[in-house]
TrEMBL record:
<feature type="domain" description="Glyoxalase/fosfomycin resistance/dioxygenase">
    <location>
        <begin position="12"/>
        <end position="126"/>
    </location>
</feature>
<dbReference type="Pfam" id="PF00903">
    <property type="entry name" value="Glyoxalase"/>
</dbReference>
<dbReference type="InterPro" id="IPR029068">
    <property type="entry name" value="Glyas_Bleomycin-R_OHBP_Dase"/>
</dbReference>
<dbReference type="InterPro" id="IPR004360">
    <property type="entry name" value="Glyas_Fos-R_dOase_dom"/>
</dbReference>
<protein>
    <submittedName>
        <fullName>VOC family protein</fullName>
    </submittedName>
</protein>
Length: 135
């Protein structure tokens, strides 16, 4: 017996040090739709986070780097192709968003290309994918 799709999306919950400043960052710098419940870009299957005010700045804890990495990733977003990835990178650098990982290509992974940014609390959001337009 096969069940119909039951989960259509998910949100990453981020505790932030200043909710209003985070809302402004996600709206103005990342071009997200921001409400009192979420910050999303490209719908709930795109970049989707729930921003919650932390009780204390000490409660804001971005992920630590994994073994062999220099940067901890908190949210990962997949893109359809490298043109979309490059356009995001250009958009974010034009808005002076902090770049945590410059674009790079892993030839053995598809090849796979990615980059990452940091928000105002140090949460790292990575973007990557294979080039869907390649032959």
């Amino acid at each position: 017996m096969s069940l119909a799709k039951q989960i259509s999306s998910s949100l990453t919950v981020l505790l932030v040090s200043d909710l209003e400043s985070s809302k402004t960052f996600y709206k103005e710098k990342l071009n997200c739709e921001v409400t009192e419940w979420w910050a999303i870009r490209d719908g709930f299957t795109g970049l989707a986070v729930k921003l919650l005010q932390a009780n204390s700045p000490d409660d804001v804890n971005p992920n630590k780097p994994s073994k062999g990495s220099n940067v901890g990733i908190d949210v990962y977003c997949y893109v359809e192709n490298w043109a979309a990835l490059d356009a995001l990178y250009q958009e974010f650098t034009a808005k002076e968003v902090s770049i945590a990982i410059e674009p790079w290509i892993d030839e053995s992974g598809g090849p796979w290309k990615e980059f990452a940014i940091k928000d105002i609390d140090g949460y790292c959001i990575a973007f990557g994918g294979v080039d869907g337009n390649r032959d």
